[in-house]
Each structure stands twice: as structure tokens, then as C-alpha cells.
Amino acid sequence: MRRGLAILALACATLGGALAHATVLVPSLVNDAAIRGEAFPAKLSEFGFFKDGARQLPQDFVYPYALNTPLWSDGAEKLRFIYLPDGTQLTADGEGLLQFPVGSAIIKTFAFGEGSERRLIETRVLLHRANGWVALPYRWNAEQTEATLALAGGRVDLVTPAGEAISYAIPNKNQCKTCHSNANRTVPIGPKARNLSVKWLGGMLKEGKLDRIPPGAATMPVWAARKPKDAAEPLARAYLDVNCAHCHQPGGGASNSGLDLRWEQRDPHAYGIGKRPVAAGRGAGEYDFSIVAGHPDESILLYRLNSAEPGIAMPELGKASVDREGVAVVRRWIAEMK
Amino acid sequence: MNRIAFAAALLAGAAASPLAAETHRVAAGEGAGARLQEALILAAPGDVIELGEGRFTLTDGLSLDVDGVTVRGAGMDKSVLDFTTQQGAGEGLLVTSDNVTLRDFGVENPKGDGIKSKGADNIVYSGIRVEWTGGPKETNGAYGIYPVESTGVLVTNSKVSGASDAGIYVGQSRDITVSENIVTYNVAGIEIENSRNALVTNNIASKNTGGLLVFDLPGLPVMGGGNVILRENILKDNDTPNFAPKGNIVASVRRGTGVLVMANDGVLIEENAFENNPTAHIMVVAYLQPFDDPRYNPYARNVIIGPNAFGRGGDDPQLDGKEALLAAFGGALPPVLWDGIKEDDDTGLRIAEGVSGWTLNLSKPGQSIAEAQPGPLELTPLESWEFPKVGAPAALEARLK
Question: What whole-number distance in Å separates Cα of residue B282 and Cα of residue B274?
Fold first, then answer.
């Protein structure tokens, strides 16, 4: 019903002529049926997440957010949004993942280039349907007017902010699940209370979009604000949690390695110190252990992070070049270990 | 017909017809990668994905996450997934769903592993070829056929060549049959690791560094490997120098090993034919390295070597003190090498009548090899033994009929 009203309101506004491109204050135009249905919508615009897709201007009830320490993806700029249907809210679950109501969605757009040169490459959506989360990738067209479902993924040649020409991989639908899967369930990864700012959480709380700010919120360091003298350990552990632990944890895609890189893991052997590789193959390089305290250049973990070669490089997906800054922080952490 | 009966008849009809499995044909050629991946995503449970004849050139790894799907090619040399120009992903094909059947296609030159199935119960690999076509190289991927964390695994009639770790590797799994495969020029031909109830039978392992490995390693989510039978395999000419990247456990395998058992609870080795494995036809050892995992048992327990055909071997061992050892044993080492280490109250190693060997006479795991006191193996032969029946559920084999 509300959607019908909304369309009517939009129609009236359009009739106004001069108002055609003005912001129209109407209830959300997000297409709840597309989120909750069984189908895989062919176009991103069918969801109605954006008032203006090219400018990534979100629709009402679509909330932008940022992570303290983000996943690095060849230096892509990421625009993140959460959609919560009117009358629903997020529920805190300790410092961990916020709990999302059925009908909500998480939207992440990957872009390269600055200012007017910015090009949207892909938008990934996670839809919370009655029987669980569904992950779908959408690829933007050259005109930046629409993004189309790319079930089988794809490749785009581009130049990273670091100036490297790469073949950027848009993941296929299954690869979405490779990272977003735990114990065979598809789950969001990013929006954990510990990796969100107090300011954002407070804003959501004030709007009634979050039930409370839990203890342990906002405890992960803000990667972009780090300074050379900051302690390396929290930065490195946050980086490894965000970039690696979705697979490297019990129930994750790399559970059989026994390596557990979650932020909360306190057993040094579990997060790699003195741990021998299991199925690393040539990813092990010439080295015997994931981490050798004090010796970053003898540590498999750093060797793989520092490689862009398929079969050696970690993470296996979403990376075609090396994150020099991430490598530098992890290197300093291992070097300073006693 | 009363209304209830009518409704029942309707329901029965509904259940029988629209759920029929569909066959989706994917041809080789332009855009094959995207078409194949899309078919794998859109398949419904029970569907068959049929690969046409020819080469499928792939730049990215493939994945399957739908239960009960069969992926079938026209033959291991006819439908070839060519990953020579692969740019991403850790394996050629990743399967994460249950009751999947993979048969009659080839996989060439994947950058990482060949086909990995993880948490994929009741999986069948039949008539699959995984090959690194440049021969044995350290830069080849680690595993060819790689089921892990699964219950119910059948790998049969397949070929793997060139893996820089194991050709066929079954890890952290249960109820396994590996039969009638040919594994050549891998570091390890077949490896059963941290797994239980495995039957490895009628395989040919040749020109690997080591033929068949049965390992149990510490620090993993699933440990306690055991109940493994190696029966009626041919282990011949496993003399390829070890080309595994250092750091991997298989990098420690000596060139010229037929069968290597490390740790484990219950391994039966019988009716195999061994020929020209220059270090040892059979080696049984405790876990060698230091570990800090209270759940882990480093001993090789209840290992039985029954009757086997032992041909020439042990005549060019990759062992320190080789010359002295060869001289002491009259030019060739006997077929079985044991480190002599057994857990209190356990039998350690037992042998059938006629099995000869030598022992390092060590007493505890991790003990330095410098303390070895090599001598002939002097064990009282067994007259008979009991061993559990092991292997994949019969339904997996039946699926191939």
C-alpha cells in the first residue's frame, strides 16, 4: 500500500515538471518484494536502494555506514549501506555482528577513481530473506546508469589507486558465499559492533534503528586514522580479522587449515605463531610456520599477504594486487614480537 | 472417487513429474567459463551439467554449491577444463554441497589445487583427470583431487599427475574409498590425512616421491586418523625427487618411499605389490616434530603389515649413513622401516609371517635420529588379525552404475 502511495506521490511530483529532479520527500521507494522474494532481480535499480545510483545517493531508510577497519579490495573505494524496512531495527549481539531483521539488506558498491573520474564497478547486495541471506553481485555499465546481475561474475581491467593496472575480478554468486559463509549459512561479515563507530551506532540508536550500543562496540582501531607510532598489534589483528578471518575461523571456508585469525582469538598458536602449514602448497614458500615471532620474512602469513600470484596470494578472492600498507603493519607487528 | 482419494492422486502426480532432473549442456568455446559457472549456479538439486567435448579456457576458479548435482564430461581427455591462464581463486573447481557426482572430465594446470570439495558429504569423483602438464614442478598446485571435512567420499578411476603435494588428498574426512586410480609424478601419490575409515585399493602409484601416505597431524580441527586399509595397490618406481615447497609436511618425504604411515590409529597394509621404491617399500613412524596440542596422539598405533609382494627396493635410500646401512644389510635395506616407537600398552607395529624389515630402535616421538640404533626387525609374526570393514557407503558406488 505504501509503495502505491509513494508512486502516486512521485507521479504528482513529476507532473510538477520543474520539480522532476528535486528530492521528493516520500516514504521509501525501496522494493521490499524484490528483497524478500525468491527471484534474483536482473537489475540493481529494481531494488530501489538509490535515489540516484550513479551518485550513490541512498533512498530513505537506506543508511550509509563505514567500518573502522575495512576489507581491502585492490584499493577500491567502498560505499556501504544498510536498508532497514520502516518499523524495524538492528539488534546488538555483544561486540559481534549486528542482527538484521528479515527484509533488510546490505549494499556495497565498489568504485575506482577520484572525483569526476570516479567509476562504479560493481555493487554487491546481501538480502535477508525468510530462509536466510542471499548474496548477489551487480556489474555497472559504462554509462553508469544501471548495474546488471552478474551471476557468473566477471573481469574488468582497471588501474588501482596505487597505479597498478590489474584485471579486477567481480565475484560470482558462489564466490560471494565463499567469504560470507559460516557453518554452511550465509552471513554478513562487516557490520560488527566492534568495528563500527560510536557516532554511527549512536545515530542509529537515536533514530530507533538500533536497540542499544553493546559493550565492546567500536573497539577496533580506525585504520585510516592510524599513525606510525601506534601499537602494531591491535592494527594488525584488526586487519587480519577483517581481511582473513571470514575464512580463517572455525566453520569458515579455510577451517581445515586450523588457522584462526579472528580478533577475539587469544591462542597464539591458533592465530599462527609457530603453527605449521597444512594445505598451503606452494603458498608456504620456503617457510615452516605461519608466523615466526620477530621474523616477518620467515612467516608464511606475510609471504602470502605480500604476493599477488594466484596459488600463493592470500586472500584468494578479491585481490589482484598487494596492499602495501596492510603488509607494512603486519610486518611491523611480527617484527616487534618477542 | 471420493475427494480425499482424488486429492491424494493429484499430490502423487505432482510429486512425480515436475521435479524431474534436467540436463544442462555446456559447450566448449567462446565464453565457456561464464556459461559453465552460470549453469553451476542455476542448477537445481538433481540436475546434470553436461560438458561438451573440447577445451574450456578458464580465467577464474569454478564453484558448485547445489546439492545432488552431477557434472559430467565426455571423457577425461575429451572435456578439458584448462586453467593455464587462471588469474584468481585457490582451486580450479570448488564444491561445497552434498551428494555431488563429478565424472569424466579433465582439469589442467590449475594455479592452486585442482578440484576441492569441502564439507561436501557423499561426493563421487569418477573418471577425473587432474594434470599439471609441465611435469613435476614446485610451482604446480598442491593437491589434484582434494576432498576435505566430508563424510562419504569415493574417488575412483581417476588420474592425477604433477601435484606438488598430493595427487589425491583426503583430509579430515570419514568413510572413504579411493580405488582404481593412477597417480604419477606427484610428491605424494595418495594421502589420507586426519581421516577415519578409509579403504585405498587397486590403485597404481608410480613415479611419485612417495606412493601412499597415511598421516595424522596435530593442530587441526579434526584429528585421530585411523582405520585405514591399503590393499591390492601397486607401488612402483616411486623415485621422483621431492619437489614440494619447503615447509609442507610432504617436503619431508624421502624419495623412494612406497607407503608411509605417520602417527594414526589402525592401519592395515596387505596384498600390495611393491617394486623399485629405493628408500623403503613401507615406512612406519611416529610424528616427527615438536607439537603443543594435548588432543593429539603422535604414535603410530596398531599398524599391521600383512602379506605383500616385495620386489627390489631399499637399494638407494635417501637416508643419512646410506653407505654404511647398505653395507650392513648386504646391499639393500629390507622392505619395512620402522622407527621402533610405540605407545605404552600398544602393539605399535605387527607383521605377518615372512615380512622382513629393520628398525631404528627409537623409543619416543621426536627423538633425534642421531640416537637411532638400527637393527633387524624382530617381531613375532601374527597368525591372524581382525580389522574393521571400512570404506565409502555402497550408495556412492551404486550411483555410477
Answer: 9
Residue range A253-298, pLDDT digits in tens: 899 899 999 999 999 999 999 999 887 888 888 899 999 999 999 9
Compute the average pLDDT of residues A93-111: 97
Cβ contact A311–B112 (<8 Å): yes
Instruction: Give me the residues paired with residue A111 across strands.
Output: A77, A120
Mean pLDDT of B285-295: 90
Cα gap B289→B305, rounded to integer Å: 25
Separation of alpha carbons A185 and A181, rounded Å: 5
Q: How many domains does chain B have?
A: 1
Asked if B186 and B136 touch (Cβ cutoff 8 Å), the reply is: yes
Which 307-326 residues of chain B touch chain A by CB within 8 A?
Answer: none
Find the CB nearest A255 among B34, B221, B248: B221
Mutate to test the interface with B, among A282, A288, A301 (most CBs of B within 10 A): A282
**Residue ranges per domain, chain A?**
1-26, 31-206, 223-336
Q: What is the pTM of this model?
A: 0.89
Residue B95: closest C-alpha in chain A: A174
Cα–Cα distance for residue pair B347/B353, rounded to 1 Å: 16
- Say if residue A244 is exposed, middle or buried (CB neighbours under 10 Å; 0-12, 13-18, 19+): buried
**Contact yes or no for A277 and B41 at CB 8 A:** no
> Could you count the other beta carbons within 10 Å of the beta carbon of residue B372?
16
The C-alpha atoms of residue A91 and residue A75 are separated, in whole angstroms, by 31
C-alpha grid cell, residue B60: 577464474
Is there a domain that residue B225 lies in? yes
* Span B176-190, pLDDT tens digits: 999 999 999 999 999
Q: Least CA distance to A166: which residue of chain B? A: B87
Whether B71 is covered by a domain: the verdict is no
Q: Tell me the three cell numbers of residue A178.
A: 565463499
Name every chain B residue with its beta carbon within 8 A of the beta carbon of A276. Answer: 217, 219, 247, 249, 289
Q: Report which of B257, B286, B280 is spatially closest to residue B369, judged by C-alpha positions.
A: B286
| 3 state SS of B145 | strand
B269: nearest Cα among B216, B305, B300, B235? B305
Distance from CA of B165 to the nearest CA of A (A): 6
Residues of A in contact with B246 (CB under 8 A): 284-288
Residue B133 CA to chain centroid, in angstroms?
20
- Which residues partner with A125 through β-bridges? A107, A136
Q: In this complex, do A310 and B64 lie within 8 Å of one another by their Cβ atoms?
A: no
Q: DSSP alpha helices (H): ranges in A105-187?
A: 173-179
Q: Are B64 and A288 an interchain contact pair (Cβ–Cβ within 8 Å)?
A: no
Residue B111 touches partner A, C-beta closer than 8 Å: yes
Residues in chain A: 338
Q: Could you list the residue range(s) of the whole structural domain that residue B266 is in? A: 165-398
Which chain A residue is nearest to residue B220, measuring alpha carbons? A258
From chain A, the residues in CB contact with B169 under 8 A are: 279
Please tell me whether residue B255 adopts helix, strand or coil conformation.
coil
- Asked if the structure places residue B171 within a domain, the reply is yes
Please indicate, yes or no, if residue B69 is contained in any of the structural domains.
no
Under 8 Å between Cβ of B191 and B349: no
Indicate the residue type of A308.
A
